[in-house]
Specification:
Helices cover 33% and strands 23% of the residues. By secondary structure, it is an alpha+beta fold. Strand 4 and strand 5 (87-91) form a beta hairpin.
């Protein structure tokens, strides 16, 4: 089991999202928030969302998750979504000790990563994209 570099999470989010007109924000353990309104304070807004959505309480809606296996362009990972529509966590295969973990195992692992990100609130990347008005 190894810890992926932030660049791996950034590449995974870029490959699996279709967020083209609004920014998203990535946290240290692979949780990302987006899409967000185009503002100068995307990181602050993402921290506010993650702070409000966490901590996770098992048995509450915040503890629920859905696991989506992803493999776009040869980039395998899992996208784990939660009850908040702007929150998701990426789990990379190298983070788990198993070669074929169950969706429950992946979801519980992602929930732990999200809890760490909500506690630490360390932003490692802000993806900004231009709006059509900015391109003119």
């Amino acid at each position: 089991m190894s810890v992926p570099q932030p660049a791996s999470f950034v590449e995974a989010v870029r490959k699996i999202t279709t967020t083209t007109l609004r920014p998203w924000v990535l946290f240290r353990h692979g949780t990302f928030v987006g899409p967000l309104p185009q503002t100068e304070d995307a990181a602050v807004g993402a921290c506010d969302i993650l702070r409000a959505a966490g901590p996770i309480r098992i048995g509450s809606p915040g503890g629920d998750f859905k696991v989506y296996p992803m493999n776009r362009d040869g980039w395998p990972c899992w996208l784990v979504t939660f009850d908040h529509p702007k929150l998701a966590t990426i789990v990379m295969p190298e983070e788990l000790d198993e070669s074929s973990p169950s969706p429950v195992r992946v979801g519980i692992f992602a929930r732990g990563k999200r809890a760490l990100d909500a506690k630490e609130l360390v932003v490692v990347h802000v993806e900004r994209t231009e709006t059509p008005e900015q391109k003119l």
